[in-house]
Design goal:
Strand order of the largest sheet: 14-15-16-13-12-18-19
CATH architecture of the largest domain: 3-Layer(aba) Sandwich
Structural class: alpha/beta
Shape: globular
CATH topology of the largest domain: Aldehyde Dehydrogenase, Chain A, domain 1
Distance between the termini: 67 Å
Number of helices: 15
CATH superfamily of the largest domain: Aldehyde Dehydrogenase, Chain A, domain 1
Number of domains: 2
Number of strands: 22
Radius of gyration: 23 Å
Helix content: 25-40%
């Protein structure tokens, strides 16, 4: 099987080395996988200029020409999914099978937006007067810049790059410092299938602030997209205001998972575990606040605790592993602090609650915490770890009120069987994405994004293409 490890910046179709390098390590054992080029502001500006130079020819290609190249890139990802998955597992920690699943998921956005490139429709407007006709066309916004997170180092890139390219834009990407190798592997495959030089550019770096300033303030960049924390997203949005860039932000979440008294408890337990322990709980749409109706609380906890005992934690290359290590020591500290705060305020650890030191410093046990109150930090902040924190509520109205009592609104989940309740609650919950009797809600066809302080804009679906387009209204006169 081929190696896809690249360690330099990728600009204008060339691998650009730098004297300054930074290590990428395996979170399962701390081993250094590679030393990667550490780009600076000057290199970021060089990437923007390369994207600007490549824009006219890429924009001029027909939709089918762009779609054909995207489909070649998609097929190359699928042909190399084992190598991409093993690389991702090594640098990020998730099980190889889960990593391969992410590669397939990430590739699906490339395939989807290849199709959307050819479904780029405008509108013919009603006749406003006898001598005029008006219509609307969609055009690429121009050079785009993206900053992506470490938890999904493949899919978070393809969800941004694929629609940008489908729309006729070029793009520069700052991949995450902790997991840049997956991004650079994608660049390698894109170059091999013939995506022109300068259309996609990658600048790995530890200098996030100065590279981010180039991306958000450079006048040639017309669209900026970011996935990460709400606090950072707000600062980046402020920086974009000076040049009035088009902006899309996928920010923090605090997803409720409500279990009503008419729910199928077995289904609720199964879907909660699938939702919560994907990527060791390090996902922005992970169930963060589990709200269980009082009348079924004990029965639910009993089945949930039993199910947690069957979860296997191990390095990502082990057999039949459910999840691997957390990404770094800061992640372990965050989880530990939240649990300590909760237990000091009266919460109870039913199972887990410890570092699995026999496996390594970054492995954390599947954990169940009960008697959680909505005022505790563990209910107010993203846990981003393998911890289920359970609160109770009395009736439907209180359940919905607790679910909405947060400044965030990315994802939400609930389990119920009564159709009238499903209809009511689905309309009342304040979130951009909602799963009912399921913990899996993300697909290339679906509109991914949040409301309130969880961001603006959508990724995936037909709405994802519009994030990289401008709408132009054209009126032709003198027809009478």
């Amino acid at each position: 099987m081929r190696s896809l490890i690249q360690t330099n910046a990728f600009i204008d179709g060339h691998w650009i080395p730098t004297d300054d390098r930074f290590p990428v390590t395996n979170p399962a054992n701390g081993d250094t996988l590679a030393d990667v080029a550490n780009g600076d502001a000057a290199l970021a500006e060089r990437a923007v200029e390369a994207a600007h130079k490549a824009l006219p020819l890429w924009r001029a290609k027909t939709a089918k020409q762009r779609a054909d190249l995207l489909r070649r890139w998609y097929q190359s990802m699928m042909d190399n999914k084992q190598a991409l998955g093993e690389l991702m597992s090594a640098e990020q920690g998730k099980p190889i099978a889960e990593a391969i699943g992410e590669v397939e998921y990430g590739a699906s956005f490339v395939d989807w937006f290849a199709g959307e490139a050819e479904r780029n429709y405008g509108d013919i407007l009603p006749v406003s007067s006898a001598d005029k006709r008006s219509w609307i066309i969609k055009q690429p916004v121009g050079v785009c810049a993206a900053i992506t997170p470490w938890n999904f180092p493949n899919a978070m890139i393809t969800r941004k790059v694929a629609p940008a390219l489908a729309a006729g834009c070029t793009i520069v990407v700052k991949p995450p410092q902790l997991t840049p190798l997956s991004a650079l592997a994608l660049a390698q495959l894109a170059s091999e299938v013939g995506i022109p030089d300068g259309v996609i550019n990658f600048v790995p770096t530890t200098h996030s602030r100065e590279v981010g300033e180039v991306f958000t303030q450079h006048p040639r960049v017309r669209k900026f997209t970011f996935t990460g924390s709400t606090a950072v997203g707000k600062k980046l949005m402020e920086q974009c205001a000076g040049t009035m860039k088009k902006v899309s932000l996928e920010l923090g979440g605090n997803a409720p998972f409500i279990v009503f008294d008419d729910a199928d408890i077995d289904v609720a337990v199964k879907e909660l575990i699938a939702c919560k322990f994907r990527n060791a709980g390090q996902t922005c749409i992970s169930a963060n606040r589990v709200l269980v109706q009082e009348s079924i609380h004990d029965a639910f906890i009993e089945k949930l605790e039993s199910a947690l005992n069957g979860i296997k934690v191990a390095p990502g290359d082990a057999e039949d592993v459910d999840y691997g290590p957390l990404i770094d020591a800061d992640a372990i500290s965050k989880v530990t602090e939240l649990i300590e705060d909760a237990t000091a305020a009266g919460a109870q650890i039913k199972t887990g609650g410890r570092v699995l030191s026999e496996l390594g410093e970054l492995f954390y046990s599947p954990t169940l915490v009960t008697k959680v109150k909505h005022t505790m930090r563990i209910a107010q902040e993203e846990i981003f770890g393998p911890v289920i924190a359970v609160q109770t509520f009395t009736d439907e109205a209180q359940g919905v009120q607790l679910a909405n009592d947060t400044p965030f609104g990315l994802a939400g989940y609930f389990c119920a069987q009564d159709y009238a309740r499903i209809q009511r609650v689905s309309e009342q919950l304040e979130c951009g994405m909602l799963g009912i009797n399921t913990g899996s809600i993300s697909h290339a066809y679906n509109a991914f994004g949040g409301v309130k302080e969880s961001g603006i804009g959508r990724e995936g679906s037909r709405y994802g293409l519009a994030e990289y387009q401008e709408t132009k209204n054209i009126t032709l006169g003198g027809l009478a």
